[in-house]
Description:
Keywords: 4Fe-4S, Iron, Iron-sulfur, Metal-binding, Methyltransferase, S-adenosyl-L-methionine, Transferase
Number of domains: 3
Protein name: Class I SAM-dependent RNA methyltransferase
InterPro entries: MeTrfase_TrmA_AS, NA-bd_OB-fold, SAM-dependent_MTases_sf, TRAM_dom, U5_MeTrfase_fam
Bound molecules: S-adenosylmethionine
GO molecular function: methyltransferase activity
Amino acid sequence: MSTQTVTIDRLGALGHGIAHTSEGPVYVPHALPGETVAIARHGSQGTVISTAKTSTDRVAPTCRHYDPDRDACGGCSLQHLAELPYRDFKRELVVAALAAKGLTPEVGPLVACGPGQRRRTVFSVRRTEKELLLGFNRAETNHIVSIEDCPVASPGIMDRLEQIRRVAAALASAAGAFRLAVLETLTGLDLAADGLKPLGDKQRRGVVEAVLALRGIARVSANGEILVEPQKPVVDFGGVLVSPPPGAFMQATKEAEDAMAALVLAHTGKAKRVLDLFAGSGTFALRLARTARVHAVEGEEKSLKALDQAARNTQGLKPVSVEKRDLFRRPLTAQELKAFDAVVFDPPRAGAEAQVRELARSGVKKVVAVSCNPLTLARDLRLLADGGYGIRTVVPVDQFLWSPHVEAVALLER
Ligand SMILES: C[S@@+](CC[C@H](N)C(=O)[O-])C[C@H]1O[C@@H](n2cnc3c(N)ncnc32)[C@H](O)[C@@H]1O
C-alpha cells in the first residue's frame, strides 16, 4: 500500500473515478472527475483519505447508509453525483458501448426513474450470534450492511421492512447467508429466498406461523418451493393480470417497464404477427396481444405457464402461443422467422448472439432489442446492422437508479 495524491480524469463503467498516473490507471470509488484526492493505493485500486479539490458536480447523498467513511451499503455507487452529470454518465455508457462497435445511431435522452420506484429488490440476509443482518453487501465484499431505510426501494417494500425482517428471521438458520428477493405485487409482497440450506419441518412451521401473523405478505418461497401463500401474487402488465412464479424475472422498476413497453408497442405498431423472445412472464407479449397475434418464447417453464394462463384468462386479446426453448442453443431460424412481421427480444446480460445471427439473415421488418447490458447490446446491434438493419434510435432507461447499470431499448427496421 502507498499513499498518493491524484486528480480524477473521468468516471469508469462502474462509476469509479479514474486517475491516470505514471504507474497506470487507478480506480477510486466515490471520487469525481476534476477532484484532487489523497488516496491509499493498492495496485490499481484507491481509497480516498482526504479531498484537496472538490467537484462542483458533487452533491450530498440522499441515504444515510451511503457514507464511504462509515459502514457503507454497496447497493448504490453514484448518489454523490449531481443529477445532470449523472444522467449524462448513464447515457454515455450506451453511446460509448455502441461507438466501440463502430455504431453511431441517434441515442435519446435518458428516461429517468426516481427514488422510491424499485418494486423488486434482493436483500442479503445472515443471522449472526448477536443479530439478524438484512440489507445489501458492502461494495465488492460479502459483508452485509443492515439497512433501516433505502431511498431506491418503493414505499410498498420499505413500509413493510419489519414484516420482511420477521420472515427472514424465520427462514434464517444459524449458518450461512442467503438472498431474499422481494417483489411488490398488487396483493402483497412476494418473498423468494434462495441459497438457503434445506428447511426442517419445525422451521417450515415457523415460517408459516410468522407469515400468517403478519399483514401484507402474499407468498414466501424457499429455493423455488412455495412455503406459504396467503394470496396469489399478482402483477399488472398493461392491464393484463399475471401471477408470476416464485423468484421469476420481473423488471425491477415499474416506471422503467412501462417506458420500455411503450417503446416496444410504438415501434411494432401495426404488425399483425409478433414474436417475443426471452418473454419471461409476458411483460411485452401480453401487452402486444391487444393488437397482434403473439408467439412468446422463453426458457423458464414456470414463467411461460404464468404467461399462458394470463392470456387465457384475459378477454379481448389476440391469440397468444407459447414455446419453451433454449434460445442460446436453438435460436429460431431465419426460415422460422418468416412467420413474423416484428420481433422483440430481451435477453439476459449475455445478450442474444445466436438468435441475432439468425435475425440478421431474416426478412423480419421491425425488430426491438431490449437490453440490460450495453456491451452485449452493442455486439448484437453490430450483427444486425451488418445484416442490413437500420438502427432508428436507441433509448437508455435508468431502471437501476444510482447504480452503474443501465437498460436500453433499440428500435431497428429493414
Ligand atoms: C431480461 S429477462 C426478460 C424477460 C421479459 N422479457 C420481461 O421483460 O420481463 C430475460 C429472460 O430470458 C430468459 N432466458 C434466459 N436464458 C434463456 C435461454 N437460453 N433461452 C430462453 N430464454 C432464456 C430468462 O428466463 C428471462 O425470463
